[in-house]
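Bug #77: duplicate submission created two jobs. Keeping one. Sequence:
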Amino acid sequence: MNARLLLLLCALFLVLMINTTQSQGNDALYSNCNSLFSCGNIQGVGYPFWGGSRSSSCGYPALELACENNTATIVISNVKYKVLNVKPDTEILQIAREDLSTGICSHDFSNTTLDPALFSIVNGYVNSTFIYGCQNVSTPNVPRQFSCTISGTANTNGSVAPGTVETGSHFKSVVIPISQTLLPKLANSSESMENILQQGFEVRLGVDSAACKGCANSKGVCGYDISKNTTNCYCPDGSSGSATCAPPVAEGPQGQPGSKGFNKRTKFFAGGALAIGVSASAIVVIFLRKKPSSQHGEVTTSNSKGSHEEDRIVENLEETNNEWQSGNA
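Kept job's structure:
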């Protein structure tokens, strides 16, 4: 068999297998990202989040949700937060630090640090500094004082100060956003600091919502392409990579396919069947060309005629392969 023909047949087979795998993978992503995250009082959360049954291709890498003891959580800059509310219409996420949800005597003295490219604190919240291990807190400007026994210092005095305060002579400090409406209660001790911290704070997500709306309006499901750092659109026909999904093909008379073309999956299988059919025909032609000699009973091959036939088959296969790949690009 012509080596060129054999290589082309192998290439067609590999292209068919690769495209089959990709089509099946995109089908799985459409189904997977069509599912929603639910945990406790957080129900039906989709893009830009992922986690639970939703794979990492369904949302931004930094927006992974987890479900622990029927409570939704998220980790931001190595600090774990409880998810109190998700408002998809306004792209607002309400969170509270898990380490301070049961008491203010934290052992993790990490500030509330947010990626400005993805999170911005909603108006109405201001930073407050919780100071631990103070040597002296008899300062008139300190609105709230408390006591905590923490490892590393004998000083148990603590206080809360408005704004961001340098640690200075204090042992540790933690900066946390607090609602302005709760600051008076924090200052006059009318509500416990634990209750105030449990109400958390709100952040606005900096995501490409416009791209997702276009995808959703075209019956697609939004995901995230980490290699391109962009929103991806997974479509019911198994395609992806476009901003929106192509409209379904209109049916002709008596439910027959319309004459204006096929969707990507239909074209793929039609092209695959054509390539396989042409390849099989080529093999049959080549082997039928070999026939027993009437004089010696040996198998002989007409080299001149066969060479022309093989060249013609190769040209046809190459043309079919090029048309098929350009149609599925």
